[in-house]
Amino acid sequence: MASLLKRRAPCPGSVERRRGRAAYVFLIPWLLGLGLVTAVPLGASLYLAFTDYNILGTPSFTGLDNFERMIGDERFWAASSVTARYVFISVPLQLMFALLLAVMLDRGLRGLPFYRGAFYLPSLLGASVAIVILWREIFGHNGLVNDVLAFVGIEGQSWLQNPSTALSTLIVLNVWTFGSPMVIFLAGLRQIPEEYYEAAKVDGASRIQQFWHITVPMLTPIIFFNLILQTIGSFQTFTQAHVISGGTGGPVDSTLFYTLYVYQQGFRAFDMGYASALAWVLLLVIGAVTALHFILSKFWVFYGDD
Predict the structure, then answer these.
(1) 53 partner at 20 to 30 Å CA-CA among 2, 13, 120, 237?
(2) In a domain, 129, yes or no
């Protein structure tokens, strides 16, 4: 009997192999999506970046002509400048507001789940067409902002039609969607040991001193995580500029984001080869900025083991 049971007992190796096969079966949909939705289009765009292709014809190989063309393309440099200003102004402001609000909510407010949900909601709706249209109405010539200014005796303007303020309104819109990093900051605050603050109070440290010498250093990994996510997302901003400007990037290219320029070249001018080259330059820039963040993080991110 014992020998029969021994023969029927499954081999540990066979069990592991069956589990491995089952795992691959469940991974098939993801692998198909990775190949058909990501890898194949990525490879096609890389090929098209070195061709002259207008969608209707056959791609003809042109080498580095598309990349050389960018050097003398004034709108390429304008789009790069607008995007750089948007990223490097809106992301720090967004993270600052998110962190300060997370610190306030971490004080144990009554109805915390309600406030957390209310502040997180704009992050879900910020890039939607409906919210951008609402933003256009708020900052329009007869919008809410000008109504408030008129109430205090200040004459307003059409904020979205003024080249000097159009980009600023989109920056404010991005800052307004601080809910997602705020929730992440709030989770990080809950992981800081309370003993640190109690020891600081015994030493006579004020709340501001506790914030700068305990909260911020302990949250640097979370700050770094949010910084990477929000920077990459801001480089890819498209909907806001497209809806606000009607797809033109106006006024006077003041809202011509890089992604919007790629869209114009690919789906309006039908210059898909040049659009693909532009897209790959954006990918390289995002990769370079992300790598720079990781390099600099060695000097300011505290992981607790250093």
Answers:
(1) 237
(2) yes
Structure tokens given for 152: 């205090």
**Domain extent at residue 77:** 65-297
Domain presence at residue 57: no
Give the burial class of 221: count Cβ atoms within 10 A of its Cβ; 0-12 exposed, 13-18 middle, 19 or more buried: middle
pLDDT tens, 44-90? 999 999 999 988 889 999 999 999 999 999 999 999 999 999 999 99
Distance CA 23, CA 283 (A): 32
Task: Give me the helix-helix angle, 272-297 and 40-48, nearest 10°.
Answer: 110
Structure confidence by residue, pLDDT tens digits, 271-288: 999 999 999 999 999 999
Domain count within the chain:
1
Residue 37 has pLDDT above 70, yes or no: yes
* Nearest-angstrom CA–CA distance, 61 and 39: 21
Instruction: Say which residue the tokens 């801001």 belong to.
Output: 234
Assigned domain for 107 exists: yes
Token digits of residue 118? 């209310």
The amino acid occupying position 89 is I
- Among the listed residues 279, 184, 292, 191, the one whose alpha carbon sits nearest the alpha carbon of residue 236: 279
